[in-house]
Design brief:
heterodimer; A: about 150 residues; mainly alpha; 2 domains; 7 helices; elongated; B: about 475 residues; 22 helices; 8 strands; about 50% helix
Chain lengths: ~150, ~475
Amino acid sequence: MRIGSRLGVGLALVVVGFAVGLMGYTFVYARGYSYLTNDPSACVNCHVMREQYDGWMASSHRRAAGCNDCHTPHDMVGKWSTKALNGFWHSFYFTTGTFHEPIRINARNRDITESACRSCHAGVVEAIDMAPRRQGRLACTGCHASVGHLH
Amino acid sequence: MADSRGGRARVSWIVITVILAALAAAGATALLLNIFERKTEARNPFYRVVELTDDTVDPAIWGKNFPQQYDGYKRTVDQVRTRYGGSEAVPRTPTQSDPRSVVAQSKLEEDPRLKTMWAGYAFATDFREERGHAYMLEDQTFTERQTVVKQPGTCLNCHASTYAAYKKLGDGDLVKGFEKLNQLPYAEARQLVSHPVACLDCHASDTMQLRITRPAFIAGMRALKAGQGVKDYDVNRDATRQEMRAFVCGQCHVEYYFKGSEKRLVYPWANGLRADDILRYYDSEQFKDWTHKDSGAPALKAQHPEFEMWSQGIHARSGVACADCHMPYKRVGALKISDHHVRSPLLNVNNACQTCHKWSEDELKDRVLTIQQRHFELRNLAMDALVALIADIKAASAGRTEAELAKPREFQRKAQFYLDFVEAENSTGFHAPQEAARVLGASIDFARQGQVAVRDIRPAPGGRR
């Protein structure tokens, strides 16, 4: 009984270790660690955002802001929770292949980008943002759609 | 007793852990394989299965190296309508001279005013909605227009893959071969070609880069650029990659005429690409396509000037090429390829329009249809005006001298060419809505001025006006 139990624990540990090893390898193989950085090239690990990345490389904002600067909130909690949320859904849709093409930003992420514009360009925005609240906010990207990247 | 209960609990914990770990391992493996597949997809743009040369005409051979593109190319057999364009499959009984069992709807039956406009010209006999690229050679070979007039080999420039045939006829010299093929009777020239437009008409076989293979386009662009002050323009040397994505289409989707007895194909662009510029060119060449049967006017037939009309529109202005909307990029696995299923963007709104325009498909379609609806109404006004002018000249012809009729006939020539310029253009105004409206407005004005000119002729003998 005792020997059998030890064998069972040992076997379980092997199986768990195998699973952990496999997951670890997958993580490294998929360059999972790159998503913990600020490096924009992490966003083209998969090819779906290649056009956006190429566009950003040629855009005026390339020298001023990377992907995370416009597409994640500027506070710690907001940034990492957004990374986690988007990371999960991007992986999910990329793996299953069920997403609209051409890809589109969703409402939550558009709000984040809008806030990012306003956070850096606060001086300019304050001077021109006069739209009545009930008509919704003026959106920077409504006119300046191509500053970050075309499309 | 307690010991054995604790042992059983431990066993079930072990079993649960093993099951969970196994599930996690299975999941991780599935994900790993998926990632591996995606990475592999991204790595290999194509496999070279066969060697392609500058003489490989058959697209099926190219298709072995480029199966995705070839698959799209083959799909141009589809016959799908849009509101104002696209072809409908109309069944017909094959005959000895025309074995086609399916054709497109007749435009002449849709709008009989076209018969009046083209009276005395082969187009008044048979004119159908264009079908996809796959049918270009077949439909030209068997159109009834062939039975009405003797056509030259020149026609094949845009209805067949002629690049290799040109080279063969000219012993390697493209332009010489082009000149020879132009002068052959159609039936004879037809024996020298076997495919509709094919891969090598637009692509270099070694690099796959876009290239121009039609001498008429090379000469036309040189004349156009010379008129703009650019000397010695060579489209294959000087055009950018993005320009080429429109120019390869402009090799055929343009206004043209057959110059002189050698039936040389010429694109009339020396003065520019607008309808006015082109008519001015024809006037200076004293060219006419035929003499109008009802009125005796020296008439012109405009032919599908898509390239010219596009060049006047906002999309051209923004650097958007034909291929961006008619062969938009699409994703196949990890590959981004040009969709070689050339067709109306209205049938492919998400890839064709939504890449740049962030609106719903319905909204985008509505915008296009609004433009086309307005264009179509204006086009109908112009058509009525022209038909009225032709009737007036016909009625006034008896007893009148050539000199007296010259002015109204001149107005008919103008009105007719301007109208046909947008009528023959295959976007129902969309390629350049304001330009199309301007041209139609001018056409209506010419037609009505022509009617005034008829009224102003001295009273005919016997007092009849």
